[in-house]
Specification:
Helix content is 58%, strand content 0%. Bound molecules: zinc ion. The site of zinc ion (ZN) has 9 residues, from loops.
């Protein structure tokens, strides 16, 4: 499960409390409800996907391009998991046509749950980045564009993101069969092409099991609730 690899932040899908869910029992201290791990993971991995490729990689590739360097590839540094919760809130709000201010308020609530650290306000990989209102605007816009398939984004940037996703899928598949990609595999163009094709098929399969509208609706009602109880 993804959440065993994370930085231990928990978000209750029933009451939106942050860090109140017990990692063993999955019960929320705040509202007493038990998280459904399947639902949690499907929302979480979809949110992570949107944040990773729609926001983080895209920003990096666009910065590169602006600097006249379109060929570098990255391994992203670990990023705050709270960004994923902000992403899930943005997706739910966008899919449910929620008022922009409501989405923003939900994200701000998540941001405020973290200790303020001014030194990280410009760090794309930190939740502190979303303390600035204009960065929230960009974040929501980027997630929205990613959900639509990145229309209008530079084709070179789009291609770099797609390639990144396929390479990650190849790594994920290698990790699942507990066998790293062998050097002879990496050097053999025919084998590489085969692995590439398999990864594309696997990626499409995983994308087909994205969270249902019902699941987003649940998050959505949470967000509305959050907004009406804002202090
Ligand atoms: Zn709860």
């Amino acid at each position: 499960m993804i959440w065993l690899l994370d930085d231990n932040h928990r978000f209750c899908l029933a009451c939106a409390a942050i860090d109140k869910v017990d990692s063993t029992t999955l019960v929320c201290d705040e509202c007493g409800s038990k998280q459904d791990p399947v639902q949690y993971n499907s929302l979480y991995s979809f949110g992570a996907d949107c944040v990773e490729y729609g926001q983080l990689y895209r920003e990096m590739y666009e910065r590169d391009k602006a600097n006249g360097n379109a060929s570098s590839r990255y391994s992203l540094p670990p990023f705050d998991q709270l960004l994923i919760f902000a992403g899930v809130s943005a997706i739910s709000g966008i899919i449910g046509n929620l008022a922009y201010d409501t989405i923003k308020a939900a994200i701000q609530k998540i941001v405020k749950s973290a200790k303020k650290d001014d030194s990280k306000q410009n760090d794309l990989f930190s939740i502190q980045f979303l303390r600035k209102e204009q960065n929230i605007d960009v974040f929501i816009d980027n997630i929205n564009l990613y959900l639509q398939g990145l229309p209008g984004v530079d084709p070179a940037v789009k291609a770099a993101i797609a390639e990144e996703q396929i390479v990650h899928e190849m790594q994920r598949m290698a990790a699942l069969r507990k066998k790293p990609l062998a050097t002879e595999e990496l050097l053999d163009p025919v084998l590489m092409q085969k692995a590439f094709k398999k990864a594309i098929i696997s990626l499409n399969k995983r994308r087909a099991i994205r969270p249902t509208k019902k699941q987003f609706k649940q998050v959505l009602s949470l967000l509305k609730n959050l907004n009406s109880h804002q202090d």
